[in-house]
Amino acid sequence: MKQQRLGAWIAFVVGTLYFIVPLIGTFEFSLRLKRGEYSFEAYRVVLTDPKFLASFGYSTLMALITIVIGIVLVVPTAYWIQLRLPKLRPLVEFITLLPLVMPAIIIVFGYLRLYNSSSLIPLTANARSTDLLLAFSYVTLALPYMYRAVETGMRAIDVRTLTEAGEILGASMVTILFKVIFPNVRVAILSGAFLTFATVIGEFTMASLLNRPAFGPYLQLIGANRAYEPSALAIIAFLVTWACMGLINVFGQARQPKRA
Amino acid sequence: MTAIDTTPPLPAEPGPVPEPFAARTKGMSIGPQAWAWIGVTPFFVFALMFLLIPTLYLVIGAFQDADGNFTLGNLGDLFTPTILAAYWISIKVSVASAVLGALIGFFLAYSVVLGGLPAWLRPTLMTFSGVASNFAGLPLAFAFLATLGRTGLVTVLLRDLLGFNLYSTGFNLLSFWGLTLTYLYFQIPLMVLILTPALDGLKKEWREASEILGASTKQYWTMVALPVLFPSVMGATLLLFANSFGAIATAYALTGSSLNIVTILLYAQIRGDVLHNQNLGYALALGMILITGVSNGTYIWLRGRAERWMR
Amino acid sequence: MPFLEISDVRKQFGPNVVVKGFDLAIEQGEFVSFLGPSGCGKTTVLRMVAGFENPTAGRILIDGKDVTTLRPNQRNVGMVFQAYALFPNMTVADNVAFGLKVAKRPAEEVKARVDEMLNMIKLPQLATRYPYQCSGGQQQRVALARALAHKPKVLLLDEPLSALDAKIRVSLREEIRALQRTLGITTIFVTHDQEEALSVSDRIVVMNEGKADQVGTPFEIYNNPATRFVANFVGTLSVLKGKVVDASSGKIQIGRHEIVASRRMFKGNPGDPCSVALRPEAAVLENGHDHAAAKPNGANGNGVLRNRIGGTVDDVHFLGSVVRIKVKVEDDAISLDTFNNPNTTPPQRGAPVTVSFTPADVLVLEGA
Predict the structure, then answer these.
(1) Which of A29, A157, B235, C252 fits A231 for a cystine, CB–CB 3.0-4.6 Å?
(2) For chain C, what is the mean pLDDT?
(3) Which 16-45 residues of chain A touch chain B by CB within 8 A?
């Protein structure tokens, strides 16, 4: 048993080193803007850059829109599939797996061809509708995670029995949906939402090809032109991702009833 | 059953909710089933418009020429040296990062699940894996440039502390191996996340049963544990492969156009028709769809197999 | 010379002493059950015999050989687990063949033995199926075949029937016993189900809190329990509160009644509280109305002294072949079993009745 324990420790330590060292390296690099001394100058430059605020704000807004659209699409669907249309489940699962199977670049390529100015639904005609198209592409990207999170949450609370209990007590369908189902899958929705947020903030391919001023393209621009600011941005991006995951965990633990 | 059954019949399997519900829905006597169909329509419309049809459009476009006639010419054009080379490099990077990611991820997952390490290490690893598997794209490229680039921290430390000049050995972050190494940053955590539940599924009793039947540790692993884990490990490796094949942002920021992988090529094509043939872009896309489709499809099939055995 | 000896074995996990000084000698071919509630240490002792736990103190000998420090794969012992533990990646036949393949037996020998085992458990048709395609009962029988295929010296079963349906539990335990008799293999069977232990064992070890309270045949354990725990755990027991009147003559006061107990008398002083325990099949119902005028020592037709206590019928449970009647007596209740008789209706709730039993039927236990 002893040598097995030693091997495990070695694997764990090596893994940890591999993951921590780049973070340390990035942080250290980001402090080097001022020649000869460590300072947070790079962060100051980045955070006061109007383009940073504009693109981060844009991406945040897009993330929120994506989350809303995602919830509106996913939650009722998961509910109805569980309750009334179980036969459609394999089809829905297949659909939600497609975005995982197909790379983002393929998806947005398809949009560009299908919805450009000369097609039936010219979504790239102006900035606002392109924003909408970008939102839809983000929704597609986030769909697998959103759906999986919400579906698991619904399965855990046994939607069918709750609905029947609500009906026996005299509630209408709307009441049940809003007063019974939604509150109970709030945690699952939140978890899907945070994952979506993390995905959208960092996304590059779709925003770049659709020519929208999102955070991803901004990162690319900085990366191509500056030396130290990209590292500062990388640290900021990492912190945002970490915060999102952390919040998912926090909300996940808080609502978990202890199993008897 | 021929015995006389006098017990009252059991309640039927919970089926659709009975009629009174329909009456309660404001005035309109639409049946409950109809409400369900209305409820799921937006989802299916969305899926059609933004998933299925765009993909189909690309696939069909791959078989058309500039005037819209059916042709296999685009597929044939895929076999030019530049494009074949692009596919080949993509496949190489993907295989390398998938296999390495799978191996390292396996040992990492094994160490926290079965390796006898303190229990608190596992949730820490899981959380970190969740974060790291999402930390891809441009920030990741920046991070590795800052660490292993020519003036990166590790490069500098190795030179100053150990007198070891990394770049003189021929290593270059902006290369095939540099990209693979960078990709591992999200591939390994993904493997850990997928494999940990599978390792959990290795029941302790199987180990004990094999031991009491006379098997050594090696025999247990070769005859029981690895075969049981195979679908999960293989499936996860395929997922890693497809994940790497479809990635672009990291490569774009790191190696730019110096390493001509398929996604970079496609990106350039979409932006500026560098191939001077619209439909060739579709063919490129089709090739990608096929490769990632087969890879992920096999992953899903293997996952189903693994779940069935565990029932 | 006993075949399997567990000698003064102790097991401690940190500050927790889970098994305290356990001693047992099992003869070749004996079927011994370890019976007790969860946490009593029965599984721990079994696992020490298997080799999955090492005793903190004591020795284990199989066929004269000290195996205490041997790994499980060196002991030539067979084990059946509660959760079947069949290898999911192998067919039933491959599962059964596992022990032989590991020992590198020649292929024809393996095939012949597997066929023999599958015939023994009467499931030859399942040979090419996978575990997930078999029912729980079938899986457990395959597990049994797998454990016995490589001809171990001892067979260990760790609550093998707990995960199965009631009907299958009964038929499978009989099958296990029949198989064990045919093969003559020394067996330890761990269970928390006292009916199971009583029905199949040569001897039972009743365990409580890490030690063996009593070791004996099912008949002994049931009829002459050594401690209050054993009396309560094995079978049903009605317990009445009483006071010692006179230890030497065996007189005990229960409420307004006085009864005589002829055995298991604990030495108590007059006035000491005690418990009077009675098995349901020992109590007999007599229709009587004068429970006010209790006549404890009325002799029946054969001249045998019987105790009599009056009470009211509280509830009647029709269990099929047995009718269990609950009679309220003083502040307590007596459960009384009679066989179903289609020609007699059971008494009504609230009916006044008399319960009678012989002095020898009474178990007197210390304390209230």
Answers:
(1) A29
(2) 88
(3) 18-19, 21-26, 28-30
SS (HEC) of A141-176? HHHHHHHHHHHHHHHHCCHHHHHHHHHHCCCCHHHH
- Return the SS3 of B70: strand
| Residue B247 CA to its chain's centroid (Å) | 10
Identify residue A133 by its one-letter amino acid code. Answer: L
Closest CA of chain B from A140, distance in Å: 7
Chain B touched by C52 (CB under 8 Å): yes
Does B228 contact C146 at a Cβ distance shorter than 8 Å? no
Kindly provide the ipTM of the predicted complex, given to two decimals.
Answer: 0.82
| Confidence band, pLDDT 50/70/90 cuts, at residue C265 | low
Residue of A24, A55, A133, A205 to mutate for B, most B C-beta atoms under 10 A: A205
pLDDT tens digits for C186-243?
Answer: 999 999 999 999 999 999 999 999 999 999 999 999 988 888 889 889 988 888 888 8
List all chains that touch chain A, counting a touch as 3 or more CB pairs closer than 8 Å. Answer: B
Looking at residue B222, the DSSP 8-state letter turns out to be: I
Q: Is B68 left (phi over 0), alpha (psi -120 to 50) or beta?
A: left
- Contact of A128 with chain B, judged by CB distance below 8 Å, is answered with no
- Nearest by CB to residue A238, choosing from B54, B114, B135, is B135
C-alpha to C-alpha distance for A186 and C322, rounded to whole angstroms = 54
- What span, in angstroms and rounded, lies between the C-alpha atoms of A55 and A49? 10
Per-residue pLDDT of C102-161, as tens digits, reads 999 999 999 999 999 999 999 999 999 999 999 999 999 999 999 999 999 999 999 999
Q: Which residues in chain B have their CB less than 8 angstroms from residue C50's CB?
A: 208, 212
What would the two tokens of residue A184 be? 């109970």
Residues 174-193 of C with CB under 8 A from B: none
How would you write the pLDDT of chain A (260 residues) with one tens digit per residue? 567 778 888 888 888 888 888 888 888 888 888 777 788 888 888 888 888 889 999 999 999 999 999 998 998 898 888 888 888 888 888 888 888 778 888 888 888 888 876 667 777 778 888 888 899 999 998 888 888 888 888 888 888 888 888 888 888 877 887 888 888 788 888 888 888 898 898 889 999 888 889 998 998 888 888 888 888 888 888 888 888 888 887 776 655 554 44
Q: Given an 8 Å threshold on Cβ–Cβ distance, is B212 in contact with C78? A: yes
Residue of C nearest to B204 (CA): C85
Parallel, antiparallel, or unpaired for β C77-80 and C154-158? parallel
| Residue among B21, B115, B147 whose CB faces A5 most closely | B115
Element (H, E) at B207: helix B204-212
In contact, B74 and B283? CB cutoff 8 Å: yes
| CB-based contact B112 A109, cutoff 8 Å | no
The 3-state secondary structure of chain C, one letter per residue: CCCEEEEEEEEEECCEEEEEEEEEEECCCCEEEEECCCCCCHHHHHHHHHCCCCCCEEEEEECCEECCCCCHHHCCEEEECCCCCCCCCCCHHHHHHHHHHHCCCCHHHHHHHHHHHHHHCCCHHHCCCCHHHCCHHHHHHHHHHHHHHCCCCEEEEECCCCCCCHHHHHHHHHHHHHHHHHHCCEEEEEECCHHHHHHHCCEEEEEECCEEEEEECHHHHHHCCCCHHHHHHCCCCEEEEEEEEECCCCEEEECCEEEECCCCCCCCCCCCEEEEEECCCCCEEECCCCCCCCCCCEECCCCCEEEEEEEEEEEEEECCCEEEEEEEECCEEEEEEEECCCCCCCCCCCCEEEEEECHHHCEEEECC
Note which residues in 164-193 of chain A have CB less than 8 A from chain B: 164, 167, 172-173
Q: How far is CA C129 from the centre of its chain?
A: 34
